[in-house]
Amino acid sequence: MHRKRLKKIVCMVLTVAMIGTTFVAVPAFAEDIQEGQNTSEAQTENNSAVAGSGSAEAETPDKASVSSAETQSRAPLKLSAKPVTSDAAQNMPGQFAVKFTGTWMDPAQQKKLTDAGWTLTYELKDQNDKVLTKVADIADFVYKIQGSETKYKLVCTAEKQGETAQVFESALLGAYRFLSAPTGVSVKCPKSDNNVTIKWKKVSGASGYLIYRTTSKSGIPAKQTKTVSSGKTTSYVDKNRSGKKTYYYYVRAIYKGSSNGSSYQTASEPSARKSVTVNWYLTCSVRTIKWYTTTKTSAKLYTSKTGGKSKGTLKKGTYVRVTDKYPRKLLNWDVPKRIYVKQLKDGKSGKVIRKGWVRWKDCKTVKGDVPYSKKLDKNNDWTKKVKEKWVNKKKYGSKTRYLIWISQYTQHVTIFKGRKGHWKVYKSFRCCSGKFQQPTPKSKSFTIHKHKMKRTRLTKHGNPYYYTHLSFFTGGDSFHTICWYEGTRRVLKGMSNSGQPNTRGCVRLDEKYAVWIYKHIPNGTKVISY
């Protein structure tokens, strides 16, 4: 009997001891909190007394009624998150800057706790109370969210000599959805041009895609090259790539949704890197020349080519495309009175935002957008394959075994040899075609119809000059040599083969090429001017 009673007494003592150990942390933590509050209040009273204003003594709450939950904050605690948008983190999808609003105690109270020996620990937990990571700096915390279904909360605990108390726990932060990385990515550059086509498999739930392009193997660049706004689109053509370079491409899937009362956008991990080498020289498909100029003073924008009604002005230095002139037919060294211009949204590209007629004298010299460069002379023409494919696809024919193409955009003349549908490049050389005031006519049906050995003209100052070996393809326009002062071999200034459109309609060539056409191209040969 005595043994049974003794066992009961021991059990009761142990139980009481365990209960005391379990709950000792909360009153001790609350006491330190209250002490910090009392210290803060006493400091306030002292300051008020020094200022000469009396105040009632603050009531001290019962320590037993103070808990960590009751002393934790002066405003509701809320956890929030938003995607990291800095350039440094663009290539790390799933990263969110985790923030929380509201305060749980004054800095003075927090200092009092740490001075009292309490260690504060911040942790990010999921909805199952699993610790995801410890938070070192709650003021600037970035966390890479791991899953689409996980919810998050921020928990602060205090520890002192083996005693632990929970200071606060925020409400759960809703989940954010992340998509899987695109697969089946392929990049190709067809031999007909230098446009790179990127294709990938559709990602379920995608709102769009991000396309990245770089010339470095070091990794995905900070900024995307293109944003595809439709989740149904699974391809993109990257145009205007410069030649003889290797490009690397990545694709990421975008998801747009809403969570925690606000909209957000997430991006998947990048796809596997794909590369392609561009070997073509020019930065666009086959096309003709376009004209441009800039205003040299504030220029009125007229509604018609002859009227005085205007619809605004163009500022000095405004870049404009030029598409027409008045009058259209000009003789010798004449210039138009007005030109029709279009102002583009993005300067040299984009949507037309303004158009109308301006005076010729209000603009600088109208130039063609040719890709000529002295350093890259050999690389500023269409490739052999592009030329052959273009003329054969157009099914151009000729009465002779030759075909001539004047490319006004690249300022090159190409001689083909063969027959309709089977033309092969035979020769190609640089030229100068007509300037804007008197451009070389565009046609697909010109023919070489006569030859002339020499022609003499006068400059606008009355000085005679000449050129030789004329091969006419229109009534007055021909292939011919560069120009010399009469009776000499001194080249007339501005009349050499510069690779820029500056003639009065003819096509100026280096002497050896003009001589070759003069001697070898028979009458009836088709000439394409484009």
From TrEMBL:
Pfam families: YkuD. Residues 45-58 have a biased composition (Low complexity). Residues 181-275 form the Fibronectin type-III domain. One of its GO terms (biological process) is cell wall organization. Transmembrane segments: none annotated. Residues 65-74 have a biased composition (Polar residues). Residues 36-86 are annotated as: Disordered. The keyword Cell wall biogenesis/degradation applies. PROSITE patterns: FN3, LD_TPASE. The active site is at H480 (proton donor/acceptor), C506 (nucleophile). Keywords: Cell shape, Cell wall biogenesis/degradation, Peptidoglycan synthesis, Signal, Transferase. Residues 1-30 form the signal peptide. One of its GO terms (molecular function) is transferase activity. It comes from the Bacteria. Pathway: Cell wall biogenesis; peptidoglycan biosynthesis. InterPro entries: FN3_dom (IPR003961), FN3_sf (IPR036116), Ig-like_fold (IPR013783), LD_TPept_cat_dom (IPR005490), Transpep_catalytic_dom (IPR038063). This is L,D-transpeptidase family protein. It comes from Hornefia butyriciproducens.
